Amino acid sequence: MLEYPINIRRFFLNIVGGLSLVLGVIGIVVPLLPTTPFIILASACFMRSSPRFHRWLHQHPTLGPMLDNWHQHRGVTRKVKQRGAFMIVLSFSFSIWVIPHLWLNAALLIFMFVLLAWFIRLPVIESLDGTKESH
């Protein structure tokens, strides 16, 4: 009987986690490609397959705090919310300006408003000084 030297489930989760991490990092600079969902997916995959990568991701100076805030509070800081809303509007506006098709511009505009409505409704977590920020 053949024995596999590597657990196929762990291998698959590492591949999906790695691809999600790459897409999340690319999403930082590419409009319309989300960052946070891919980073959260990478964290979930690494949690089940590679404690070393999971620990590295959560200790990363940029990505770690975002993951910790999401896992602990299911929310974002006011600063992240303001930056995120600005980047959503900026990236969608640029895409609408560049694309010459009216029907596609209308679809992008609708998608932008849906995404903004979801994003703005995320709970605001406590700031670094420990005081609760309000909506």
From TrEMBL:
Indicate the transmembrane segments per the record.
20-46, 106-124
GO annotation, cellular component aspect: plasma membrane
Q: Where in the cell is it found?
A: Cell inner membrane
**UniProt entry keywords in alphabetical sequence:** Cell inner membrane, Cell membrane, Membrane, Transmembrane, Transmembrane helix
Q: Which InterPro entries match?
A: DUF454
Q: Pfam families, from UniProt?
A: DUF454 (PF04304)
Specify the protein's topology with respect to the membrane: Multi-pass membrane protein
| PANTHER family for this protein | INNER MEMBRANE PROTEIN YBAN
Q: This chain belongs to which protein, by name?
A: Inner membrane protein
